[in-house]
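Figure 3 (text version): structure tokens given as input.
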């Protein structure tokens, strides 16, 4: 078990690391050459341009204004200065609500036992109400977006007489005759998208070698044709990539023609748009047929949020896919206990000395011993977790979710469960197993909670080192943006030829909800558990929340460019995980008290988990509908206001090409979508190609969205 001296060494290392990162950021952000790395969001909004300096050439790269270095910490008050309404308008509701999670971690660790639980529930209740109100206000006041009028329809049943497009049009003209406007069927363009991406990569390499040759015309660049250019025949690089691009261009043209003409490329999925938000809300939130497995409707993600690769996945296979991933995730989670146990063994000097006795004299050196016990376990665990978010995201993609926001929420759920089982419970149990192996194996199942209860205070020092490594130094490293900084300057030196190239070289990034939010929840869990058991840990957590809030506020204002906007759809998950952490802390407190000769007092705590679960059910019933259902009253009000303000709005032109696959949006395909004249569908008849059915009401009009783009 680490001593106070060991914790002091770890604190010194991490504080110095965090200070070094923050100091480096404060200096690097002032340099003109790094302006696009640390303020890309303002460039993307078009309100900031490259710094221009008259005078010496060096001033184009280095800031020689010494007064600006005196204000090197000015980014902190600047990050806190922007009001929340302006922040929502600037970065979106997702980002603003994400920041509020950090604010809760100031106030969720102040009191203990009942008072602490009631205070946490009060904060959650207040935040749920505020955020639900913010969401409804955001939806009511935000600008017009295609997803407000559009519904995603899946599992369209096959028909031998009509194509998918004709079937969709016919169904909605009949069943939503007064509100249906247009639709766009979904094409399986995954292979085409892969070819386009591969061609883009080849073009980047060609640009690199062409620029290299332009700088040194005396020598033609070369590369090898084998794996990753490391082996094989040496050829002229420019000629090689030119021929590869020509080959891919031919394959791309062939695949485009195949997608256009092959009926099998059309999936039983469509984006259906309506004349009003009210009409879309009715369709999205109701069952369409007596068979609940057909014509499944849900709100369409906004166009930026669509994950196109998963749309062609057959709906019937989704259940099987999710079952496979559930099994795989189970084994991933529990087999990961092995490296967790190894990491925990590093925190036990005696265990290391038994395993490698010849290193005993070296390990017993005070500074080395403090480093091993105070710093190494935390950094080792951090390294083990580096690739985990990527693995979990791949698993979520395999499950078939069709929006980036849903993928991130699903990945976040897996990551939180993984951290709960492995980092929290795994660290406690594995550490106990190493230190009390015989008793842990041979004791009865009823004694395990007591063993865990005893272990919780013993592992406080490990979690302190983990918080300092992952929380303090990690957050400071986030604002430094070392990886984007290096990549930007490499691209700027080797690839950039125009201002457009320089803009594409920027990597503003975004809030990685799938990995960062579960880590926040781990700190909530640690704070709630140790608030009663070992309050000494709380200052470390509060420092993390304070530093993280300022850093991420700065990043959201100046750096991040969110890929999508979900209207804080993730908040119910956040609330549920905090409730879970609160219940776990209450149950572990029961286990701990049962080992401290205080068993008579434990019945008094049994009511806490029951009351907490009741509170969660209340919040779920009271506020969660605001995140799931769009009220028809709100939809009608917004439609009425918009029709009064813009009576001549051509909504069909606005929606017509909103949900076309990105590979078709090259500037030429869009022009081939014709916009037909608006028609009123009253009592006219719609001819159908079905031989066994009579004509049904409403006139069928095939518009540009019903056919594939003319490629």
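Below: residues designed for each position.
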């Amino acid at each position: 078990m680490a001593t106070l001296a060991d914790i002091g060494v770890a604190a010194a290392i991490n504080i110095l690391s965090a200070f070094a990162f923050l100091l480096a950021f404060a200096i690097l952000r002032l340099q003109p050459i790094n302006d696009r790395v640390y303020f890309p969001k303002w460039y993307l909004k078009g309100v900031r341009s490259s710094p221009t300096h008259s005078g010496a050439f060096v001033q184009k790269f280095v800031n020689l204004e010494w007064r600006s270095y005196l204000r090197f910490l000015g980014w902190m008050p600047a990050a806190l200065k922007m009001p929340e309404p302006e922040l929502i308008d600037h970065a979106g509701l997702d980002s603003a609500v994400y920041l509020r999670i950090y604010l809760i971690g100031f106030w969720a660790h102040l009191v203990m036992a009942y008072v602490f639980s009631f205070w946490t529930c009060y904060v959650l209740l207040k935040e749920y109400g505020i955020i639900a109100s913010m969401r409804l206000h955001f939806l009511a006041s935000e600008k017009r977006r295609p997803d407000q009028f559009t519904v995603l329809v899946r599992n369209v049943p096959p028909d031998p007489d009509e194509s998918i497009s004709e079937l969709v049009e016919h169904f909605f003209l009949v069943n939503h005759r007064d509100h249906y406007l247009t639709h766009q069927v979904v094409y399986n363009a995954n292979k085409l998208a892969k070819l386009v991406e591969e061609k883009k990569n080849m073009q980047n390499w060609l640009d690199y070698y062409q620029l290299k040759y332009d700088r040194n015309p005396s020598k033609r660049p070369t590369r090898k044709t084998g794996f990753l250019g490391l082996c094989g025949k040496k050829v002229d690089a420019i000629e090689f990539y030119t021929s590869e691009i020509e080959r891919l261009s031919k394959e791309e043209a062939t695949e485009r023609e195949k997608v256009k003409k092959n009926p099998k490329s059309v999936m039983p999925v469509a984006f259906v748009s309506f004349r009003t938000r009210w009409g879309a809300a009715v369709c999205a939130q109701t069952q369409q047929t007596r068979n609940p497995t057909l014509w499944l409707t849900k709100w369409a993600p906004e166009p930026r949020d669509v994950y196109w690769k998963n749309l062609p996945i057959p709906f019937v296979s989704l259940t099987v896919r999710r079952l496979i991933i559930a099994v795989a995730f189970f084994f991933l989670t529990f087999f990961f206990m092995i490296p967790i146990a190894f990491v925990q063994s590093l925190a036990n000097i005696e265990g290391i000395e038994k395993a490698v006795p010849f290193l005993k004299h070296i390990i017993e050196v005070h500074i080395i011993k403090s480093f091993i016990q105070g710093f190494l376990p935390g950094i080792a665990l951090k390294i083990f977790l580096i690739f985990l978010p990527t693995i979990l995201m791949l698993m979520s993609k395999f499950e078939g979710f069709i929006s980036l926001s849903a993928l991130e929420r699903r990945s976040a759920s897996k990551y939180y469960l993984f951290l709960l089982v492995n980092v929290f419970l795994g660290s406690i149990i594995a550490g106990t197993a190493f230190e009390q192996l015989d008793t842990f194996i041979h004791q009865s199942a009823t004694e395990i909670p007591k063993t865990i209860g005893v272990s919780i205070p013993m592992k406080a020092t490990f979690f302190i080192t983990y918080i300092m490594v992952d929380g303090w130094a990690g957050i400071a490293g986030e604002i430094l943006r070392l990886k984007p900084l290096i990549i930007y300057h490499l691209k700027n030196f080797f690839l950039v030829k125009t201002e457009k190239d320089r803009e594409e070289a920027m990597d503003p990034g975004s809030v990685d909800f799938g990995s960062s939010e579960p880590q926040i929840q781990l700190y909530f869990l640690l704070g709630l558990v140790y608030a009663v058991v070992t309050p000494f840990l709380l200052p470390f957590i509060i420092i993390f929340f304070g530093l993280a809030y300022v850093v991420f506020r700065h990043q959201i204002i100046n750096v991040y460019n969110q890929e999508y906007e979900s209207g804080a759809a993730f908040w119910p998950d956040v609330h549920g995980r905090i409730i879970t952490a609160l219940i776990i802390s209450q149950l572990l407190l029961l286990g701990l008290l049962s080992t401290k000769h205080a068993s008579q007092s434990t019945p008094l705590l049994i009511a806490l988990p029951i009351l907490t679960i009741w509170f969660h059910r209340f919040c779920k019933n009271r506020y969660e509908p605001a995140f799931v259902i769009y009220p028809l009253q709100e939809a009608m009000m917004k439609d009425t206001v918009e029709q009064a303000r813009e009576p001549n709005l051509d909504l069909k032109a606005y929606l017509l090409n909103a949900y076309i696959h990105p590979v078709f949006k090259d500037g030429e395909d869009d022009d081939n979508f014709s916009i037909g004249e608006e028609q009123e569908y009253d009592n006219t008849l719609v001819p159908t190609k079905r031989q066994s059915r009579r004509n049904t009401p409403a006139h069928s009009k095939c518009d540009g969205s019903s056919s594939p783009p003319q490629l």
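The CA atoms of residues 9 and 21 lie 18 Å apart.
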